[in-house]
Amino acid sequence: MVNDPQRVARDYPEQFALGVRAFAHIPLALEPDAKAVLTIHFWQRDKKLTQRDLNLAAMFAREMEVVIQNHLLFKNVTEVGGLAWAFSGLKSLMQSLTSPFHLPDVLKQVARNALLILDASNVSLYQYHADTELFDVPPVTDGDFLARDSMREELSPDDALFTLIVQGTSQFVDDVSAHPILSSPSKSGKPRFIESEKIKSGAVLILKPEEGKESVGLLFVNFREAHRFSIAEKRVMDALATSAGLAIRTARLHTKQLEALHAVLRAIASKGPELKAVMERLLEKALELTGAQHGVYMSYNRHKQRLDTIARWPNNSARAFEPQKIGEGVIGLAAQTKKSILLEDVNDDQRAILVDGVGEVVPSQFYRRVNPETQSEIAVPLVEDGEHAGHEVLLGILNVEHVERGGLNKDHLALMERLAVPAIIAHHTVDLYKRRQRRIDHLHCLNLIAARVQEKPYELDTIIHFFLTGITAGEGLGFSRCMLFLAEDDDKLRGNAALGAVTREEAERIWDSLGKDVPLEDLLRRAEQFSDDVRGGLADYPPLSRLVRRISLNINDNMGAICECVHRAQRVTRVYRQPDEFRRMLGASTESDDLEHAFACVPLIGRQAKSIGVMVVDKKFITPESEIDDEELGGLEAFSRLLAVTIENTRLRERMAEVQAAGLIHTVEKRVGLVRNSIPKLRNCLESVDNSGVAADMGVIVTRLEEDLQIATQVFKQFRMFTTPQVLDRKMHDLRTIAEELCTRIPSVCGHECSTHPEPLTIWADKNVLFNAFMEILTNADEAMTQNNGNRLIAIRTAMDQSEAESQLYALLEVDDNGPGIPSSIRETLFEPFVTAGKSGGTGLGLANARKIIEAHGGEIYCGESILGGAQFVVQLPLMTTNAPRRAI
Question: Which residues of 849-878 are buried (b: 16+ CB within 10 A; e: fewer)?
């Protein structure tokens, strides 16, 4: 094959001058001493020969071999016999028999041409099926018959046809009345054919495609006048019988092939996305057509560089098929070379076969035995053109095995190569079904989430959990993990939420707890309940979510795909084994392995075409080596668009509520201010009251009013702090220094214990804002001990802790007291607004503000029981390390 026009011009100037730009030579095997070559040319400038072109040309070449072989056979016959009268007729017959494939037409042509060429009175052609040992009735006839309807009757077991087919040799009978079989009386008493048709002479031709093959029919050539068959006539009629047998066999094979193709195409239409079922049907038909006993289809896994069994027939076989390596055995060698391989004798250790791309190989040396009974085998690769010219893509291997030596031949190889076409169609059809069904599932999932979000004004964390559930659910996008990072200021991304597992063991526990085929609506209900439980303190964020929430990234740093996604404002993917800094950083915090799995980053684009965050997904614990395809990315982008709009709408709703609340607070605070300003006037009025008792009572009321106004003012102040977004001015600080300063603020009436960690605890924080949050905790502890009658104790301690994956370090601040503790009834909601432990003058906003500030720093706050007997508050903040000074913040 020559595909390069420049090489054609250099090495074949004459052909190039005629316009040839690419060509291929295909050898033809005609006779032992006769060879030929079929050449195909392309005249188009940019057209190149593909493997598909070569396969089609090879199929055509095999058909040409039959035509030429028949022509040579005819030529030899006519040369030996010198029968000029038969030249045109027999040549026309042989040529015509090689072209049609419709079996009834073939049979009619055989009968018609035999009648005309041999100038017979009539001819009868009975088609015979060796597998069932039956003849087709009525026969195909042509010519003049006296009792044609008599041949429509069913044949009896003693009919002469069965005796003749068993004898298996053609017979030329000058006097049929003396023939022991044709003239013997019928047991049924009915007259024999030669009697009813008044036949004097006749020829009984056994139709065989070639010597040693099974008979496919009987052709009776009948003469009502006495006829002597010359040697030349016999040779011509033998040639006719062979050609007719070959034509019948070819037509039968073509019919079976069409039936097989139609059966496979029906299976594709009915089975839909079930590749296994379609391939089983194809293998079933392949075994019927080839006579093989075992068939298997193995799909090529290009990530693992191996072949995996998809279907086999019979499918109840106990035979095990292990994954096969490329280049191993017949199947592996066919996959490596992308060429079909026929082994007529798998044990042959003498004759080498030529394998394209490999050279000559001895079957017994590379054959990998799986079935001990196999003696011959065929492996056909499913290959299609790739995206780039000259690149072929391997889909899989069709394999059939026969228990007889020579049981599979070139005809069977050609058949299997034809069946490879519907197999490729099946691949693409199944892929199309799956992509269409996935698209439907994605839209259904998105519609369910959109409808649920509209049901009521959910909290933003609940809404985000809905979307993450849809992205990781089997009915949704089906990713194993999803992580959400939201933009913070202009140059930072902070982890907001995640759904998935940190380790494989955790992933398996999650899958086991969920069970199989959980409806998406149930998963969304669980997501809502879980979010409520987290806010209520009944549950904690899972490990992956806690890890992600403690990650902060500077988008100007070289942090791989996630930063690239923000800068480009479009999706970014990393394929299997492609290095990436963000994946390396994330992998260091999750299960350690050497698998650089594929993942994708998709931006959340807001109304002003500005990125408000990034969604990161992968298949780490499902099929980590597989790529994330365009269909999945399209679904992910649809989710991200809707999530971006939903986040902005929710933020706008919350902001409007804050503005409305601020306006209301301002109005009420203004009125309270007017009342507070009236207190001095009230006290002046009391001085003019003559009744001292009334004046004293009124004074108590005014004092209480003044105290209540002070509490109200404090509530307004804290509520304004709670509803106003915090703008943080962060720098690196040592938590130990902040804790030491906090110790100096412990009221003098309290005993105190302060202990610090021996090593620096560097955090990324706005010191003043964070210190205010700590003071809220300290004040809460002091106020809780008002009933301790002077026995008050507050302990402050700093420490270091690690995440579950032992990769993220945290700085801890613990505040303990020996007060009454936090009642269990409110412990779960303690950090919600307006929840108080019953302290005198408590607003219920101090700890809510503290939690808001701590979470803004990427930390968390917990409440529990102290060893001192009271309450313990634990603040956990990401610790900065020398290896990653600006990542976990």
Answer: bbbbbbebbbbbbebeebebebbbbbbbbb
Query: Distance (Å, rounded) from C-alpha 889 to C-alpha 881?
Result: 10
pLDDT at position 443, please?
Answer: 83
Give me the pLDDT at residue 175, please. 94
Q: Which of 497, 512, 502, 586 is nearest to 543 (CA)?
A: 502
State the angle between helix axes of 410-453 and 231-271 in degrees (0 to 180), rounded to the nearest 10: 10
Cα–Cα distance, 218 to 102 (Å, whole number): 19
The DSSP element (H or E) to which 762 belongs, if any, is: strand 762-765
Question: 341 phi and psi, to 5 degrees?
Answer: -130, 130
Tell me, yes or no, if the pTM score tops 0.85: no
**Dihedral class, residue 573 (left if φ above 0, else alpha if ψ from -120 to 50, else beta):** beta
d(C-alpha 574, C-alpha 698), whole Å: 77
Q: List all residues 6 or more positions away from 485 whose beta carbon is below 8 Å from its beta carbon.
A: 493, 494, 495, 496, 548, 551, 553, 562, 613, 614, 615, 616
Closest CA to 527 of 629, 452, 588, 601: 452
What DSSP line would sit under 630-673, residue for residue? HHHHHHHHHHHHHHHHHHHHHHHHHHHHHHHHHHHHHHHHHHHH
CA distances from residue 306 to 283, 336, 371, 699 in whole angstroms, order as listed: 21, 10, 20, 93
Characterize 558-587 residue by residue with b for buried, 16 or more Cβ atoms within 10 angstroms of its Cβ, and e for exposed. Answer: ebbbbbbbbeeeebbbbbbeeebebbebbb
pLDDT of residue 614: 94
Residues 113 and 124: their CA atoms lie apart, in Å, by 12
Distance from C-alpha of 593 to C-alpha of 507, rounded to nearest angstrom:
15
Phi then psi dihedrals of residue 703, to 5 deg: -60, -45
DSSP-assigned states of every residue in 456-495: S---HHHHHHHHHHHHHSTTTT--SEEEEEEEETTTEEEE
What's the confidence (pLDDT) of residue 350?
82
Sign of the torsion angle spanned by Cα atoms 758, 759, 764, 766: positive
- The C-alpha atoms of residue 193 and residue 565 are separated, in whole angstroms, by 88
pLDDT of residue 58: 73
- Position 665 scores a pLDDT of 67
Tell how strand 217-223 and strand 294-301 pair up: unpaired
Cβ partners under 8 Å of residue 806, min gap 6: none
Q: Is 13 exposed, middle or buried (0-12, 13-18, 19+ CB in 10 A)?
A: exposed
DSSP 8-state assignment for residue 540:
-
pLDDT given for residue 515 in this prediction:
64
The residue assigned the tokens 């009391």 is 686
The answer to whether the beta carbons of residues 181 and 124 sit under 8 Å apart is no
Q: Which two tokens stand for residue 851?
A: 């939690």
Query: What is the DSSP code (8-state) at residue 152?
Result: G
Of 255, 316, 256, the closest CA to residue 280 belongs to: 316
What per-residue confidence (pLDDT) applies to 639? 92
Residues 91, 94, 98, 103: is their CA dihedral positive or negative?
A: positive
How far apart (Å, rounded) are the C-alpha atoms in residues 764 and 766? 7
**Taking Cα atoms as reference points, which of 743, 889, 715 lies closest to residue 813?**
743
- Mean pLDDT of residues grouped by 10 in the chain (889 residues)? 82 84 80 72 71 72 71 53 42 48 80 86 93 90 88 80 91 93 79 89 91 86 92 85 84 76 71 77 88 92 85 75 85 91 89 78 80 91 77 90 91 87 82 78 86 86 93 88 87 88 83 76 90 79 86 83 90 88 77 70 86 90 75 90 89 72 67 75 75 76 77 67 68 92 87 90 89 88 77 91 62 91 78 65 72 85 88 89 37
Q: Residue 666 has what pLDDT? A: 64
β pairing state of 359-361 and 809-817: unpaired
The Cα 889–Cα 887 span in angstroms is 6
